[in-house]
Amino acid sequence: MRAGRNTxxxxxxxxxxxxxxxxxxVVVSLAGCTTYHARPLPPSxxxxxxxxxxxxxxxxxxxxIEHPLLRPxxxxxxxxxxxxxxxxxxxxxxxxxxAARAARGVAAAQLVAAGILPNPVLSASEDVPxxxxxxxxxxxxxxxxLDILGFLTRGAxxxxxxxxxxxxxxxLAWQEWQVAQSAxxxxxxxxxxxxxxxxxxxxxxxMSQSVSTLEDAVSRQLATRVELGAAEVAxxxxxxxxxxxxxxxxxxxxxxxxxLGVDRTALPELQDVGIPFDTDSADxxxxxxxxxxxxxxxxxxxxxxxxxxxxxxxxxxxxxxAAVLRQFPQIGIGVNRIRDTGNLLTLGxxxxxxxxxxxxxxxxxxxTRATRDVLRAEYDARVIGARATIxxxxxxxxxxxxxxxxxxxxxxxxxxxxxxYNRALQSGNADVLTYYxxxxxxxxxxxxxxxxxxxxxxxAIALETESGVHFVGTIP
Length: 476
Fold this sequence. Notes:
This protein is α+β, with helices and mostly antiparallel strands.
């Protein structure tokens, strides 16, 4: 009696678990397609060290950059780094841009996920007779089903993913444009500050010679200590100005090196090029400032951030459409094959459907629509802000150019004044304090003119950045 029970119950159990083991083996073999590989961060004690980066190795990639707003340029740093070369090198080597390009992989992965169809659902069950006295067999049920709703929303989700990648690409291109323009500004700043340092050093050398000459004259009683004191005060003022300018120049160089991803000691010499926005520059094209209407016309086609926002809005439109489609009941169709405990085999279709009594996907629809409204408002605000910024920059460029012209006229007038005081001093018709004050004032006016030129460069490049219009050789 005990042996018969074991035979009757044990056989169906072994048969049933064999089917489950087979299904598990198949599922595991299909799922094991990707393996895990660890990518640990650098050790903590390595923080603060910077790997050496050769700018020469970046020259070829920089010259091959394809960008809707950046001109191709063959980069050669051995003859000095120009602002345009610095712009392309920054796009190729900037650490923040490298991180942004890595983030693009997230959007690309989302596009891949949007195109994947839902997996079919396999089901299996077994009914094992226990304490059987009728000779029943193990009942087996096999089923396969597929969710139809995933097919209905796939088109909208793929479009949302594709638009999302386009939006990310445009946003990255806009970020590259801004980094390139910032590198140009810092290069111009460092170059102009180096000019100012040379002016200060020349003045310092002249004042140092004057002090030495007066010290010798005082020792021979050919000059007074008042004259020597005035020369020493003027000399110390010039030294202080030179130290301040060197600090500003080195700070600009550090900022430029950071954009290029190198240490300041690895930064090549800067090439002293003409200022295309300067009235006295040989690179001047002779044209006047563009009008506001000319800069605003076609702004949406040139501003990559506006294009990115528009594409992002279209991506969100597709997400709204997909959310609306998902409000319909989830329908699964499939087929079942059943063997009951009486050894009767059946085969037939199966349909499953969710009943949308409470959840009609109204939550996702509301969120996607609200997000779409936010993107539209952001786009409208960005357009209005871009026009206002361009208008303000035009006004500032106009006024700064007028200031620069006025300062240069003042420098010329002060040079004539210094020469007159020098002649008067030699003939005994002027005091030494007035002469040295005039020389100090001349130095200050020259430095103010360089500072105004620096302001003009920054404003003009900012106007170019905001409008997407190149001004090289067009602003007199």
